[in-house]
Amino acid sequence: MARKKRQARVKDKWTLKKWYTLIAPEYFGMAEVGETPADDPNKVIDRTVEITLAELINDYSNQNPYKKLVFKVYRVAGENAYTKFHRFELTRDYLNSLVKRRTSKIEDVIDVSTADGYTLRVKPVAFTIKRCKTSQKRAIRAIMRETVLQLGTQENFIQFLQECVLGKIPAEIYKRAKKIYPLRRVEIRRIELLKEPKLELPEKAEAVAAA
Known about the structure:
By secondary structure, the protein is α+β, with helices and mostly antiparallel strands. It has 2 domains: 2-90; 99-195, Band 7 domain (Tetrahydropterin Synthase, Chain A, 2-Layer Sandwich). It has 6 helices and 10 strands. The chain has helices at 2-16, 53-57, 92-98, 134-154, 157-166, 168-177, and strands at 18-23, 32-38, 48-52, 67-77, 80-90, 105-107, 110-113, 119-128, 183-195, 208-209. Strands 1, 2, 3, 4, 5, 6, 7, 8, 9 and 10 form a 10-stranded mixed sheet that branches. Helix 4 (134-154) crosses helix 6. The radius of gyration is 21 Å and the shape is elongated. 25% of the residues are buried.
């Protein structure tokens, strides 16, 4: 009898749950990116959803299927849960496919603050055609850092993020660094949001709008 009662309680919990539609940020078209169940809208806050760029913009060309975006819920209104950018990264399979024998892989980790006060951790990576010298690696790494810091501090968060994800920043690094040594590929392998500017936003408990 006790076992049957436990099963009934579990079933009751699911019947009380409501499905919320996850909405991408405005700067990614406010597309529907998934659903999540909860018996309390406050429990939806801070949940994350992962989607590839290909799925998000319905374009499976180039490297879009290998680019993953992670969004985090910050506000719930009715049956919609609105998200903001949390993380971007390339898939492990794609990165592994870029590694070749007798070539060099050059990485860096750069913290940059955008013109509108967002702090991002950007991780670029470059792959050479053949193995290069340590001094050349150092020079290419310096160019990666200089380019990310220069463009990141000049641009606002949305512009800089979109240029990283869509390939403009890697293309600029490639153009500058290939003068040091021939490159095969440059990518931004990961971006993390470290800090947002302080805005007058409601507390977590007040982030749920009335249905």
